[in-house]
UniProtKB/TrEMBL annotation:
Full protein name: Uncharacterized protein
Organism of derivation: Nocardioides oleivorans
Lineage of the species this protein comes from: Bacteria, Bacillati, Actinomycetota, Actinomycetes, Propionibacteriales
Top-level division of the source organism's lineage: Bacteria
Length: 140
């Protein structure tokens, strides 16, 4: 061995073991770091899976709400249609009844006028009474 090599060997003799310890410590630190990163990645994966499950459950609830609301919309649409038809039928009936009422009022007015005429005629004494009254009146 040369002088340089002996100096290096004596300087690194105990240093070689110390260097190996430093390398081993560095590797242990890397392993701990990697294990910590692995645990964090697993935790993140679990959290992500929980979020996915929660989102899928929310989607299921929303789909159920959509189906329920769709059924309710169909039911209410059918009811609105029936009520619209009923309203139209009632409007038609009201128009018919108003026409009948107008005709009945006209007929009533005609009958009332005729009754008035008949009562006016009935209020006048008959022809025979009028003649008799004149004859009696001239006899006095």
């Amino acid at each position: 061995m040369g002088d340089d090599q002996q100096v290096r060997a004596s300087a690194t003799g105990s240093g070689a073991v110390a260097g190996d310890d430093d390398v081993a410590a560095g590797l242990r630190e890397q392993v701990r770091l990697l294990e910590r990163q692995l645990l964090e990645a697993r935790q993140a994966a679990l959290v992500s899976r929980d979020h996915v499950v929660g989102i899928e459950a929310e989607i299921g609830r929303q789909n159920a709400d959509i189906v329920r609301l769709h059924v309710e919309v169909r039911r209410l649409s059918a009811r609105a249609k029936r009520l619209g038809e009923r309203k139209d039928a009632q409007a038609k009936r009201i128009t018919e009844l108003q026409d009948k009422l107008g005709a009945a009022r006209k007929s009533s007015a005609t009958l009332t006028r005729r009754v008035g005429e008949l009562e006016a005629v009935a209020a006048r004494p008959s022809f025979a009474r009028r003649v008799a009254r004149r004859l009696r009146g001239s006899g006095r």
